[in-house]
Structures are given as structure tokens and as C-alpha cells.
Design goal:
This protein has one domain. The chain has one helix and nine strands; from the N terminus they run αβββββββββ. The protein has 170 residues and is mainly beta. The protein is globular, with a radius of gyration of 20 Å.
Length: 170
């Protein structure tokens, strides 16, 4: 008995991507605190475009050996609040595998004053930190780390200032 003739390829359902606003409203499942990410801020001068940037670098605590991964994210900005929603990991197409954490960098033209960085995971957990940015004095101060009041919220990220990677125009 012959197989039936296929007129069109079968339709594969697409996975639904959560919108950034729905992630911020989601209530996470109860889990214990576990540090998974490290968020570092520093100033970097780009010589090619001759501009000063604030760099927000997010990296995993875990190190990967076989592949080099990149953290994928969605970004929401509201006045002095920056919401970074981590959506997952993506393998980089490098020829030589490296041992290291998964990471991503966000560049913002140099901002001044108080700024809140909020890091959110897909399950709805949110961690935040308040920074004081002083471009003239070439200084970033971590004022406080906080967790927004939310049911089952947990600590998964540590925030810090990375003084070793600062670079400025001569």
C-alpha cells in the first residue's frame, strides 16, 4: 500500500515568547536563594567612534567548558530604571572553544546621576541595585542592592562596580 502524497510540509507550532511586561508581573515559584549571575558596571572609552560608554556586563557564575555561550536578553528602559530580562543562553559560533562564563554587555552612552538596574529572570524573580554615576570624577558607586517586594522573590544576582575594566579618553 503506497503512502499518501504530501501536499504541504507539516506545520510546526512556534514557541511562545513571554513579553517583558508579563515577566515583570509574574510570581516566581518558591525556590532557595542561589547566586547565578554577576552584574558589573564600568566606563569604557571606544576609540573608533571616540565616545564614552557605560557598560553593563552580565555573566554567569557557572563556567562552561565545551562551548562559549552568550546571554540573550530583552531590555526595558523607564527614565532612570533599566530592566534587563534574561531570556536564555545562545551558543557562539567560535572555532576554538573557551572555558568561561556566559556573558553579555550592554552599552549606554554615559549617563549621570542615580540609576536603577533591575535584572529579571523568565520565572519572574527580580533583583535590583541603585548606582550613582559620576562621569566627571570617573566614578561609579553602588548605593544599595535590593529585591522588589514580590511573593517568592529570591536572590540570584550580585551587583558590583568593576574598577579593573575602566577606560577613559586620554
Amino acid at each position: 500500500m503506497p503512502l499518501r502524497k504530501v501536499n504541504a510540509p507539516p506545520k510546526i507550532p512556534k514557541t511562545r515568547k513571554k513579553k517583558a511586561e508579563s515577566v515583570l508581573k509574574a510570581i516566581p515559584a518558591p525556590k532557595p536563594d542561589k547566586l547565578e549571575y554577576l552584574c558589573k558596571l564600568f566606563f569604557r572609552y571606544d576609540k573608533t567612534v571616540k565616545k564614552q560608554y557605560l557598560v553593563i556586563r552580565i555573566e554567569t557564575i557557572a563556567y562552561f567548558t565545551n562551548f562559549t555561550y552568550e546571554i540573550t536578553y530583552d531590555l526595558l528602559e523607564k527614565e532612570n530604571d533599566i530592566y534587563i530580562i534574561i531570556t536564555g543562553l545562545k551558543a557562539r559560533m567560535d572555532l576554538v572553544p573557551e572555558v568561561g562564563p556566559a556573558s553579555c554587555e550592554l552599552k549606554r552612552e554615559s549617563l549621570e546621576g542615580n540609576i536603577n538596574i533591575n535584572l529579571a529572570k523568565q520565572d519572574g524573580a527580580i533583583n535590583g541595585a541603585e548606582y550613582l554615576l559620576d562621569f566627571k570624577n570617573k566614578k561609579i558607586d553602588l548605593i544599595k542592592e535590593f529585591m522588589p517586594p514580590k511573593k517568592n522573590n529570591r536572590i540570584f544576582c550580585k551587583f558590583e562596580v568593576d574598577n579593573d575594566n575602566f577606560s577613559f579618553a586620554d
